[in-house]
């Protein structure tokens, strides 16, 4: 019997790559998700970044088996005529299926309960230190505990944002709001939009927001061409101001990281208070959660006896979280980068090439929050962090089979690689033979007569 199915080509699918006309393919079946994009739990940007492509590997990575039945209403009736699957993708999908059968996605361990208990203890000790002691040393220790508390709440927000770490979706949502909005002042809606875009477009200079740090940092001289950020929808100008900062970025990296976390609450507020509420699912919950943070933290700081101690308290608490900001950069800053949209038919290759693991003994896993297995996490983002060490040998074997890098270095070596990467770009930025767009500040400083 002749095949009665309707077919389109890969090139025809690629024409449907706009917000107002957004098609994707999963296992060769074509879906029109134009009307779904604003309801997609991961946000519209991940869909747009992969629009007009077969997204099977990304779909498998981010969605449980229960999500498949939600696809039917969006089926266009078309199939891809020239649908092919690479050997790496075939093996990757087999691994996802294998891990599912082993129960790795369901066995969550006791990480969540232990971490939530630690967060509660740190918060109570910090409050007690501020309210019950007049010692400056105790106040400094209390501020440091707030910093460590924010680090652990960050790991919890990260885990709960990726997958269901509690017994049900309501409990999982509560943990998201508690650890993100209420305790850390970071909107989980902002984080998911930002972080999902990073995962989909890992190390794309114009699509991955984690690498878009102009004017302070540039991990590649490709950023000197003032490329456009598709996440922020603006041009990242490499002007004279950016050239100045980037020229010394290997020296300013650690000082900036000490206070870089301030940007997270600021960007959270900006998005939640913006006029575009379509970007913020459960807007009321998000705003209430952030309000809780902006009540308890300033109130705690106000209980200190002097302004000097209050400034000290805020400084120390943010300084400590600089550890986590450095951890966020270790896995990607020194890895290969590229310009352009992510290509979903190279999912396995792009994730392994753009990520790096950190050598870490099991008893130090709490310190890295799962990011020490960044390659595994990027390939299997729904996998509970307690199982990342278990799947690591499988990933190493698959990388070796397909001649792909599996980079794993010590914490100290990873820091050295970042500084080397930043130094190389800094020296290139100092090359005054490369012209840069002149801005108003440049014109003002260099005006004569």
Automatic annotation (TrEMBL):
Pfam family, one: Cyt-b5
SUPFAM superfamilies in UniProt: Cytochrome b5-like heme/steroid binding domain
Any one of the GO BP annotations: lipid metabolic process
Subcellular location: Membrane
Membrane topology classification: Multi-pass membrane protein
Species in which this protein is naturally found: Oenothera biennis (German evening primrose)
Domain Cytochrome b5 heme-binding intervals: 5-89
Family of the protein in this entry: Belongs to the fatty acid desaturase type 1 family.
Gene Ontology CC terms, in alphabetical order: membrane
Protein name: Fatty acid delta 6-desaturase 2
Molecular functions (GO terms): metal ion binding; oxidoreductase activity, acting on paired donors, with oxidation of a pair of donors resulting in the reduction of molecular oxygen to two molecules of water
